[in-house]
Amino acid sequence: MYYPDELIEEVRSRNDIVDVISGYVRLTKKGSSYFGLCPFHNEKSPSFSVSREKQMYYCFGCGAGGNVFTFIMEYENYTFVEALKMLAERAGVELPEMEYSKEAKEKADLKVSVLEVNKLAAKYYYAQLKTDHGKLAHEYLTKRKLSEETITAFGLGYSNKYSDDLYRYLKTKGYSDEVISKAGLISIDERKGVYDKFWNRVMFPIMDVNNRVIGFGGRVMGDAKPKYLNSPETIVFDKSRNLYGLNRARTSRKPYFLICEGYMDVIALHQAGFTNAVASLGTALTSGHASLIKRYVNEVYLTYDSDEAGTKAALRGIPILKEAGITAKIIRMDPYKDPDEFIKNLGAEAFEERIHKARNGFMFSLEILEKDYDMNSPEGKTEFYNEAAKRLCSFEEEIERNNYIEAVAQAYHLGYENLRKLVGKMAVKSGLATPAVRPKQAAGKESHREDGNITSQKVLITWLLEDERIFTQIKKYITPKDFTEELYTTVAELLYKQYEEGTLNPAKIMNHFTDEEEHREVASLFHTKIKELTTKSEQEKALKETIIRVKNNSIEHATKMLDPTDIQGLQKLMEAKRELQSLHKLHISIE
Q1: Residues 279 and 263 sit within 8 Å (Cβ to Cβ)
Q2: Would you say residue 400 has pLDDT above 70?
Q3: At CB < 8 A and 24+ separation, what contacts does 113-117 make?
Q4: How far is the CA of 588 from the CAs of 495, 519, 545, 548, in angstroms?
Q5: Cis omega (within 30 of 0) on the bond before 335?
Q6: What is the rounded distance in angstroms from the CA atom of residue 380 to the CA atom of residue 374?
Q7: Residue 94 backbone dihedrals phi, psi, to 5 degrees
Q8: For residue 501, which phi and psi values (nearest 5 degrees)?
Q9: For 222, which DSSP code?
Q10: What is the 3-state secondary structure of 93-141?
Q11: Is the bond leading into 46 cis (omega within 30 degrees of zero)?
Q12: Residue 439 in this model has a pLDDT that exceeds 70
């Protein structure tokens, strides 16, 4: 639903950011700002800054930042609308009722009903575990060395031997066959009638990041197959986009996740103090999982089973995580099968040691690849080196690629230059690169220049926000359209408008954006690090150079995009070039 800008701003303005964040983070006032330990990454020295004046926060360590809506979205993993509702309720602001189409209303109502019936089923399963019917299931869990506290914390339960036990219970609570079926809790068969999806199983409620029960996993108590059974996909449950234990792991202050294969691995690790453990839900790691993980950490440790299937799963997961910008390391469980067995036999300290000895994901993949080649023969070695070189081509960033070339060369006793040349050859051969047509140094400079232009735009926006006098001096020469990134243009337009109206309010600018990543990027625009300059003349010179660079880049960008037949556009470009010459003569004053 669309909420008017005025209403959004009323909610934001009535929720002081310092007061809201103080409910989550211990803040200490230093000067005009408040500082604390960042809740979004692990740190020992406070780099998390909250400004009452700007009504914004920013972490100089990890780059998290935004207004009060952003904070609630990031911390609680809410959508913009969910954050708006929470803060409206906190401030006593009444939001208008959602207006749905008939189809949308039916879908929303079904989602609410499915969540309700899942919650009720979880409570019922938990209660059954405590009865005589659940005695064997309870013994199974305690024999697996789970404490009562852990059983309660994870809401573990038991589905009765009677195949329609839950169904009959839910019917007494007034739920229809359609809702129970669409929650994935029953099956309906023409011959068998209605029967529970789960029966005679230890039950593992699956929760989303907001602690809502979205599905279940069940471990059979007898010899029936399958041994583990998960809920089917429903309106609230998509196993390729959810992780078991994430609702608990996301509040861990550790900068990485431990990724396991099963429920018991996650629970055993949490009980041992490794509260950052999660598991995929009976499926291989997907790009959806990787995107979800990336919202919380940039590094993971794969603790898959030590058998062949676990090794293959780890190898499949490494490139998926890399594609999402996540570094992967491998923890080997030998001589045990999985983290659960390892913890039970060797304990938490030994597992911590394995974490410290974890293998880099790429290097691990080469170790496994090596087994496919006869490394005692020249032919086998050559084939292996060629394949390793081909894989090294996957690193797009030159610095990262060179670091890995160095690591591989050292591990396999190769000359660095020889391997680097082989990687270049394989890149051309496989179509991942083309032979250079100009000196490599020039190409490097071109790339750096482009990065510098983006940085200059970010620096200028930060400068404009910090000092209104700069705006009054340059508005004639620099317009929002001179910022070539779409997001930067939008921010500049809003900033210019506020200055013209005499109502500078950076936190309000962020109301324009509803996506969490956009909030983070806009916040970074307002907090770009500006090189410390000692004298007034140095500052004025640096600012002038930044302005000229932004304008020059804008002209170059417009020239590239210009249609040769666009006479009016050409005239505007000529005028812009004349303005650029004027800028060279302009004196920028910083008081």
Answers
A1: yes
A2: yes
A3: 113/175, 113/179, 113/183, 114/179, 114/182, 114/183, 114/234, 114/235, 114/236, 115/212, 115/213, 115/214, 115/236, 117/170, 117/175, 117/179, 117/180, 117/183, 117/185
A4: 20, 31, 10, 12
A5: yes
A6: 5
A7: -90, 125
A8: -90, -5
A9: S
A10: CCCCCCCCCHHHHHHHHHHHHHHHHHHHHHHHHHHHHCCHHHHHHHHHH
A11: no
A12: no
Angle at 493 between CA 40 and CA 93, to 5 degrees: 55
CA atoms within 13 A of residue 412's CA, in its CB half-sphere: 24
Residues 130-183 have pLDDT tens digits of: 999 999 999 999 999 999 999 999 999 999 988 899 999 999 999 999 999 999
3-state secondary structure of 64: coil
Cα distance between residue 374 and residue 587, in whole Å: 71
Length of the chain measured in residues: 591
Both tokens assigned to 370: 């090596």
- Look at residues 256, 246, 249 and name the one whose alpha carbon lies nearest to residue 280: 246
Residue 46 tokens read as: 């406070």
Confidence of residue 564 (pLDDT cuts 50, 70, 90): low
Lateral strand order in the sheet of 327-330: 243-244, 277-280, 256-260, 299-302, 327-330, 359-360
Q: What is the value of pTM for the model shown?
A: 0.62
Strand ranges, E, within 356-414: 359-360
Return d(Cα 387, Cα 371) in angstroms, integer.
13
Tokens of 308: 């062949």
pLDDT of residue 217: 94
Closest C-alpha to 515, from 497, 498, 481, 490: 490
Q: Which two tokens stand for residue 54?
A: 């700007």
The 3 state secondary structure assigned to 440-487 is HHHHHHHHHHHHHHHHHHHHHHHHHHHCHHHHHHHCCCCCHHHCCCHH
